[in-house]
Amino acid sequence: VDINISTLLALGNIDHGKMIFKKCAACHSASEGGGNKIGPALWGVIGRKAGSTSGYKYSKAMSGFDKNWDFEAMNTFLIKPKEYVKGNKMAFAGILKEKDRSSVILYLNEHGDSPLPLP
After folding, report:
1. Which residues make beta-bridge pairs with 68?
2. For 67-109, how does the pLDDT look when each residue is reduced to its tens digit (9 = 90+)?
3. Cα four-point dihedral sign 55, 57, 60, 66
4. Residue 43 pLDDT more than 60?
5. C-beta of residue 104 within 8 angstroms of C-beta of residue 16
């Protein structure tokens, strides 16, 4: 997906991301020490290597996905998770609205010990 990530992130905001993340919270925790649920804990996910949360049993597709979750990778994943990491077990259609997606990414970036600087 060819997108200017700075332009995309400028569309969102953390408060909106908190609201949108409620959909994700059925399966994921984003709070510090929140632990794994149906999906892996997302505290510190932005900047982390994919498939690396301890104590979570990832699909072979995700554990073999040799990338870090930077802004671009997370954006592409959230558009259509099943297509970006073929064979992963996340049963979620994706977030098509750019503002919603950028807001969730900004929200997740703030939920970690060392948020990445915005591009």
Report:
1. 49
2. 999 999 999 999 999 999 999 999 999 999 999 999 999 999 9
3. negative
4. yes
5. no
**R_g (Cα) of the chain, nearest Å:** 13
Q: Which helix (H) or strand (E) holds 5?
A: helix 5-10
How open is the CA angle 85-89-95, to the nearest 5 degrees? 65
**Cα of 99 vs its chain's centroid, Å:** 14
Is the pTM of the predicted complex or chain greater than 0.85? yes
Quote the distance between the C-alpha of residue 104 and its chain's center. Answer: 8
Count the helix, strand and coil residues of the chain and give each as a percent rounded to the nearest 5: 40, 0, 60
Maximum Cα–Cα distance for the chain, whole Å? 36
Q: Is 30 exposed, middle or buried (0-12, 13-18, 19+ CB in 10 A)?
A: buried
Q: Give CA–CA dist 9/40, Å, rounded.
A: 24
**Cα end-to-end span (Å), the chain:** 17
